[in-house]
Amino acid sequence: MAILAGKRLVITGVLTDASLAYGVAELATAQGAQVLLTGAGRGLSITQRTAKKLSPAPAVAEFDAIFRRRTVTAAPTVYVLSLIHI
């Protein structure tokens, strides 16, 4: 049984297949996790291209959090269950 089977992870920072975040995403999918990658701005298209190298290729969402006075503003349709930022 895969250790992450049934778990959902949101992983940021996947820009190239040499990034540490890519390694985390690769291991997570190998262990049965459902992965969502995020990117913002110019990095979004790079993340989308790099995501195609993973099997299965995870979904990629635009996500940019802004911290203001102890509140977080994010896209209203994104629900973050777990967040790994490397």
**Average pLDDT taken over every residue:** 81
| SS content category | alpha/beta
Number of DSSP-assigned strands: 6
Q: How much strand content do the residues show? A: 25-35%
**For this entry, what is the oligomeric state of its chains?**
single chain
How large is the count of helical segments?
2
Termini Cα gap: 27 Å
Q: How would you sum up the global shape?
A: globular
Overall radius of gyration: 13 Å
Q: Would you list the SSEs in sequence order as H and E? A: EHEHEEEE
Give the proportion of residues in helices. Answer: 10-25%
Largest sheet: 4 strands, parallel
Strand order of the largest sheet: 3-2-1-6
Low-pLDDT residue spans? 76-82
Structure description:
- By secondary structure, this protein is of the alpha/beta class.
- It is 23% helix and 28% strand.
- The protein is built from two helices and six strands.
- The protein has helices at 20-30, 43-51, and strands at residues 8-12, 34-39, 59-62, 66-68, 71-73, 83-85.
- The strands form two sheets. A four-stranded parallel β-sheet has the order 3-2-1-6, with helices on one face. It has a two-stranded antiparallel ribbon with strand order 4-5.
- A hairpin with a 2-residue loop joins strand 4 (66-68) and strand 5.
- The longest helix is centred in the N-terminal third of the chain and has 11 residues, at 20-30.
- It is globular, with a radius of gyration of 13 Å.
- The N and C termini lie far apart (27 Å).
- 22% of the residues are buried.
